Amino acid sequence: MIIKTIIENTAISDKFQNEHGLSLYIETNKHKILFDLGKTDLFLENAKKLNVNIEDIDLVIISHGHYDHGGGLKKFLEVNTRANIYINKHGFEEHYSKRPTDIIEEIGLDKGIKNNSRIIFVDKYLRLDEELEIFSGVKNNNLLSKSNNVLLMKEEGKFIKDNFNHEQSLIIKDNDKLVLIAGCSHRGISNIIDKFIDIKGEEPRYVLGGFHLSSPSYKKSEDPSLINEIGRYLKSKDTFYYTCHCTGLVPYNQLKDILKERLQYLSTGTCIKI
């Protein structure tokens, strides 16, 4: 399996432009996948530099209904004419963020493309084929990031904390390996891994994605004690981790002290084979 980081907050060199967002190109035995599409159409430029032909992508998965993961969707639909887009059924609902100034801004997806015929809405579980499964419905509330508290939704016209029912993750069976791909892990990376184990009956060999341990708007990271607890949980699994985006560099370095060589960082331009 080949994975290329098309969009991430950082970049491996000046050759690539970066933005706050995420987009991963994943090439399996059967598929050429984009997992998320970043904040803008910048993914197109970086894809060319990474020798990824957007027209060849056969499916897209949007991890959740935030603009920094699905902002490139409109442009993708213009360039690619074949791929279906898999979004959770709650993905186009209104999602908000309370900024440090107390202003509440909408951070959701472009509703103008909601009715596109290539968008497929996913409930709590979907098996695409023998390689791919999509799941949501994570119920556990262990080791959650406090930065989630400023992420909101509306219920009966009032702002409440987002329940992240719109967040979904991807399972890939690659020969004898099971791989878990997450977006921001708003539901908690430990809870998402636990749900994976419930579904598959075993631990993932690899986990890739953001762990949501920092807030760029508030310029702060999660409490070190929470990061340590998450690190201990991750260490208890027979798993190798690649993280990025909303994990943040300070929490990454703290987790790196715990996980050592079992944790690596994905910047824009990073290419790996697992």
TrEMBL record:
Naturally occurring in which organism (per UniProt): Clostridium bornimense
Name of the featured protein: Beta-lactamase-like protein
GO molecular function: transferase activity
Domain Metallo-beta-lactamase positions: 20-211
SUPFAM superfamilies, sorted: Metallo-hydrolase/oxidoreductase (SSF56281)
